[in-house]
Automatic annotation (TrEMBL):
Keywords: Endoplasmic reticulum, Heme, Iron, Membrane, Metal-binding, Microsome, Monooxygenase, Oxidoreductase, Transmembrane, Transmembrane helix. This is Cytochrome P450. It is a peripheral membrane protein. One of its GO terms (cellular component) is endoplasmic reticulum membrane. The lineage of its organism: Eukaryota, Metazoa, Ecdysozoa, Arthropoda, Hexapoda. May be involved in the metabolism of insect hormones and in the breakdown of synthetic insecticides. It comes from Megaselia scalaris (Humpbacked fly). One of its GO terms (molecular function) is iron ion binding. Belongs to the cytochrome P450 family.
Length: 296
């Protein structure tokens, strides 16, 4: 046998042995009658995650959607290591509650056994057996909902906080003025803007009823913006325009509206109406959304 043929044979044998090594567990779930997606050499079922093409969450979501109607769980492979992926929410709940004692040890425990980093080895997440149970029973009382509330006795109303923030932003950008929403609880701009939004939604109820029963349109006098509210915005708008025309030029919505007024000769009520569009669209709505984001 020539040296070339021997080299080719050795390379083929080596390649075959490498193939056997990386596929040695690929029949693991099949032997146990567990269905699942077909793994790929070296990468298992998470090739796109390992090659950084897609986040692993999307890959798991694909598997979930493909099997959720027919299976409570499926077998997958992280490289060539078999892992069980739970698809049924009730089964997942059972594992994390009543049967958790059988699933307490996790893969992270194996990663840290030989680690010299003592701080991570003593982290409760990677502890196992009785040591984990002891640490869990000691730490859980410190993180109960009641205990956490006692750590922060002064609660922050996220919606109120975000209403102050969006109110300050809208007043600054649309009127060019400082509202002072964070400086005082009796901020006029905040009080009137809240009243504006409240009145607007109240009138929407009347509008809905009159749309369903047109005969009642003459009964309901729909007035989205009350006179006192309208006059408040007219006055601060005049104040803002006067201040801006004195030379306090800025690149904001107020300046855009002033330029539009000079170009198109719009009335002051048209001017204020455009300003109120930003309040109704960006004050309450933005505050509610950002408040929910803060609480997530």
């Amino acid at each position: 046998m020539s040296l070339t043929m021997l080299s080719v044979a050795l390379i083929a044998i080596a390649a075959y042995l490498i193939y056997l090594y990386f596929t040695r567990n690929f029949d693991y779930w099949k032997k146990r009658g567990v269905k699942g997606p077909k793994p790929k050499l070296i990468f298992g079922n998470f090739k796109d995650s390992i090659t950084e093409k897609r986040n692993v969450g999307y890959l798991i979501d694909d598997i979930y959607r493909n099997y959720k109607k027919s299976e409570d769980f499926v077998g997958v492979f992280n490289a060539n290591f078999p892992q069980l992926l739970i698809l049924n929410p009730e089964l997942a709940k059972q594992i994390t509650t009543s049967d958790f004692s059988s699933f307490a040890d996790n893969e992270a425990s194996e990663w840290t056994k030989s680690s010299k980093d003592l701080l991570i080895r003593y982290h409760p997440f990677v502890l196992t057996g009785q040591e984990w149970k002891n640490r869990r029973s000691e730490l859980i009382p410190s993180v109960t909902p009641a205990k956490i509330k006692s750590y922060y006795p002064n609660h922050v109303d996220a919606t109120d906080l975000m209403l102050k923030y969006t109110g300050e932003v809208v007043c600054d950008v649309v009127f060019g003025l400082e509202a002072g929403t964070f400086k005082t609880e009796t901020c006029d701009f905040m009080k009137v803007s809240r009243k504006l939004v409240s009145d607007f939604y109240n009138e929407l109820g009347k509008l809905f009823i009159s749309s369903c029963f047109p005969i009642l349109r003459g009964v309901f006098k729909i007035n989205f913006i009350k006179d006192d509210t309208a006059n408040f915005y007219r006055n601060i708008s005049k104040l803002a325009i006067e201040s801006r025309l004195k030379g306090n030029d800025r690149n904001d919505v107020l300046q855009f509206l002033i330029n539009m007024q000079e170009k198109n000769n719009i009335s002051h009520d048209q001017f204020v109406g455009n300003q109120l569009m930003f309040i109704l669209d960006g004050y309450d709505t933005t505050a509610v959304i950002t408040a929910h984001v803060l609480l997530c």
